[in-house]
Design the sequence.
């Protein structure tokens, strides 16, 4: 039976290879705009994601100005915000809500989902598993353009007169369902929903492609246990997305019906100005269940790719094999499974049965186990390594730090009892910004520094990278560490100002510090932007394998064409983490080097694999003759 | 074929292509997985909402029994078309794909008429969520049937151009799988609606 299957597959591959060799030439539109090459699509995702990150960052600084300096005159922002600055030179309170909502939506979905997964899954999956391109280049292109369309709709919503959606990024009804609630729940919310529907289509198209490519398009010898951890991470991410985004789609669809067609899925017994609305029999809690069934896995959609990228960078730059490869894969699998059964910890205070609350507490706390395994493995990989502090490496270590500090506060929040005090305070804000926001953001930046040479054929400046790292790293801690205190003191999130409450009059100075740190952190990102764009054109020329790395993407030419490898796709003979192997000539052995060529460093069981390789090599010779 | 030669020379123990499936067929399965999640979310929302009370109970339209029969028959004709394609009987394939498409459209018409029955029974889209859920679930399923009918027409076009035969079954297999999937999905939804009325 097995042989029959293999025949089918090799035929398919052969066909694909043939196609790609004829696709090299195209005009501007086919090579840069409607391109089906995974590397170009990855760059499209990257640039769009970076643009969104900048917008999201600027929005956050605007509302941080309000929070840190509630008395300040913001008249000077009028050229940018126009009518959203009130007569008194203050930020419009409803626009403040819209800013918070948009910051969350943009960062979670457009930057850390599309910008991170979209960029690195697209770029690395075919290159690291040894495929000419994605399973379906066309679907991949569609995925980007649906994302672009979704982005355009969301971007447009920033400029309409009633403002963008203002019900928080979680868009809980009835706030989001009734235009009477805030201005943003009018047209802004409609555009938000349209944009998210398009975004979900884009994510599903992408995810289907990623999984298919990883499962079916691996090169010879690339067994599951020889896949780099990045690929494992992208694989789990795509699986989570495929299972959870349809649920968000269902939730959004019902919300659309409630808003525009008069149904009552989420609405019931609402009086506005003394008049009862016609909606009867809905349940707003239902929306929360549906939303968080996506919302919690979304956290891992954001985080897992960053963890995968970090595994790769830390192993490469410690010049050591990753510690506990199988434990890493296992813990990611475990996180994937657990991510679907913990959603109700976002809803402890919705009047949930306390017994159910304890179950979700237990399940939530179990996530600490695989997370701790991962942190342990990162630290043990670094331990006694020959560490090279490249910019990518520093950002990866920064990720581990944030993942730890942010993860620990998760233990408190995961307790249904403690959550009663901490729910919806700045403690939550601090927690998720560290563990998922900053950690994933650092993963993304680390990935850009590390794979920039393969993307653009040039190196980014390491000195600027290191300045960027230290400013951002210290800045992020300065922003989010004080927030824990503010949160424990009971400051609720999403409030426009606290100056009217006697209780919250303290901590004004701490809020000021946070805002100043946020401004510094955002400014530091311009160093990165300059470095990025300058290096694309003027950076030092990169060699094919500048980091002495073992994985397949570094065996491609400096500017890989459409099809990635000239000639045959390389065969893989070993796992991707043969760094500093005792006895080896160099401190890394690429995956393409057979064991038969490295007798000096082989372990006993690897010597036995040589026999199998011989069969392999023979087959390849035949292959080459026929091509 | 040199690839055949190559694969036969491989040694069995070496993991080459551990899971070897046509990428597009595999993608189809993943797509069906996410469609399944969409309906799983709606049906579980249905249960959660129902458990909260204030739920209007009503009889399902009798037409649903007929449409269920139609979609069942269409699955049979689809499978028949698949077997015919395997035996290279192109004429039969065309006829059967057309019959399947017609049955698919008949199913849609039936569902639409069933909505009419609901309206006559004063179950409107706007009103108690029990009715709204019924419209949303059947409507979304109907939309997927529309997509499958379009897929059938694409397959018909390929059959006319003689692109479907025993050596080129991928498209036919994908269409058959999708059609069966939507049939089974409907039967699940129908039983679900009968049980949790």
Sequence:
């Amino acid at each position: 039976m097995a042989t029959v299957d293999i025949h089918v597959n090799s035929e398919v591959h052969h066909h694909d290879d043939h196609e790609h060799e004829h696709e090299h030439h195209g005009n501007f539109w086919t090579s840069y705009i409607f391109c089906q090459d995974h590397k170009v699509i990855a760059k499209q995702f990257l640039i769009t994601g970076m643009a969104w990150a900048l917008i999201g960052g600027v929005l956050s600084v605007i509302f941080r100005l309000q929070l840190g300096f509630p008395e300040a005159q913001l008249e000077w922002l009028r050229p940018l915000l126009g009518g959203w600055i009130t007569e008194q030179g203050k930020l419009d309170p409803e626009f403040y809500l819209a800013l918070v909502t948009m910051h969350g939506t943009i960062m979670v979905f457009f930057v850390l989902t599309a910008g991170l997964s979209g960029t690195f899954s697209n770029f690395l999956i075919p290159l690291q598993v040894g495929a000419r391109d994605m399973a379906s280049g066309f679907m991949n292109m569609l995925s980007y353009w649906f994302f672009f369309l979704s982005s355009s709709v969301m971007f447009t919503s920033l400029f309409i007169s009633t403002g963008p959606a203002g019900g928080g990024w979680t868009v809980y009804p009835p706030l989001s369902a009734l235009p009477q609630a805030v201005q943003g729940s009018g047209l802004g919310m409609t555009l938000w929903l349209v944009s998210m529907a398009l975004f979900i289509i884009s994510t599903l198209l992408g995810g289907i492609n990623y999984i298919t490519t990883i499962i079916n398009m691996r090169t010879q010898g690339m067994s599951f246990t020889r896949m780099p951890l990045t690929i494992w991470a992208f694989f789990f991410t795509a699986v989570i997305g495929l299972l959870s985004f349809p649920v968000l789609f269902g939730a959004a669809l019902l919300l659309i019906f409630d808003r525009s067609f008069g149904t009552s899925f989420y609405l019931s017994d609402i009086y506005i100005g003394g008049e009862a609305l016609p909606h009867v029999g809905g349940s707003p809690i239902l929306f929360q269940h549906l939303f968080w069934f996506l919302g919690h896995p979304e956290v891992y959609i954001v985080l897992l790719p960053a963890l995968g990228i970090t595994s790769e960078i830390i192993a490469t730059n410690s010049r050591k094999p990753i510690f506990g490869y199988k434990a890493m894969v296992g813990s990611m699998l475990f996180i994937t499974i657990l991510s679907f059964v913990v959603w109700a910890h976002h809803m402890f205070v919705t009047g949930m049965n306390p017994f159910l609350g304890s179950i979700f507490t237990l399940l939530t706390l179990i996530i600490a186990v695989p997370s701790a395994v991962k942190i342990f493995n990162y630290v043990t990989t670094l331990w006694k390594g020959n560490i090279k502090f490249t910019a990518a490496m520093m950002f990866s270590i920064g990720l581990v730090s944030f993942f730890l500090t942010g993860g620990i506060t998760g233990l408190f929040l995961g307790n249904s009892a403690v959550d009663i005090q901490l729910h919806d305070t700045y403690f939550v804000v601090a927690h998720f910004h560290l563990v998922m926001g900053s950690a994933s953001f650092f993963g993304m930046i680390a990935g850009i520094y590390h794979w920039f040479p393969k993307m653009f054929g040039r190196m980014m400046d390491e000195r600027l990278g290191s300045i960027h790292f230290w400013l951002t790293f210290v800045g992020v801690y300065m922003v989010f560490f004080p927030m824990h205190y503010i949160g424990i003191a009971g400051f609720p999130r999403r409030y426009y100002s606290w100056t009217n409450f006697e209780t919250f009059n303290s901590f004004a100075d701490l809020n000021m510090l946070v805002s100043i740190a946020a401004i510094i952190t955002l400014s530091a990102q311009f160093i990165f932007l300059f470095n990025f764009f300058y290096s694309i054109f003027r950076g030092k020329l990169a060699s094919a394998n500048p980091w002495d790395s073992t994985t397949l993407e570094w065996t491609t030419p400096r500017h890989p064409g459409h099809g990635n490898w000239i000639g045959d796709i390389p065969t893989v003979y070993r796992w991707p983490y043969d760094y500093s192997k005792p006895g080896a000539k160099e401190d890394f052995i690429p995956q393409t080097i057979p064991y038969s060529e490295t007798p000096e460093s082989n372990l006993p069981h690897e010597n036995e694999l040589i026999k199998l390789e011989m069969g392999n090599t023979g087959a390849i010779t035949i292959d080459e003759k026929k091509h | 074929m040199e690839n055949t030669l190559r694969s036969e020379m491989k040694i069995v123990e070496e993991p080459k292509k551990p899971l070897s499936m046509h990428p597009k067929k595999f993608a189809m399965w993943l797509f069906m997985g996410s469609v399944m999640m969409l309906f799983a979310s709606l049906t579980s929302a249905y249960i959660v909402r129902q458990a909260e009370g204030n739920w209007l109970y009503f009889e399902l339209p009798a037409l649903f029994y007929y449409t269920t029969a139609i979609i069942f028959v269409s699955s049979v004709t689809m499978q028949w078309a698949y077997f015919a394609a395997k035996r290279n009987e192109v004429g039969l394939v065309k006829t059967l794909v057309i019959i399947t498409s017609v049955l698919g459209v008949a199913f849609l018409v039936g569902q639409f008429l069933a909505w009419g029955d609901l309206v006559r029974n004063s179950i409107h889209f706007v009103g108690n969520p029990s009715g709204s859920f019924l419209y949303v679930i059947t409507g979304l399923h109907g939309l997927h049937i529309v997509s499958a009918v379009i897929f059938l027409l694409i397959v018909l076009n390929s059959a006319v151009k003689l692109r479907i035969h025993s050596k080129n079954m991928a498209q036919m297999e994908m269409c058959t799988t999708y059609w069966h999937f939507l049939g089974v999905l409907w039967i699940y939804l129908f039983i679900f609606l009968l049980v949790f009325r």
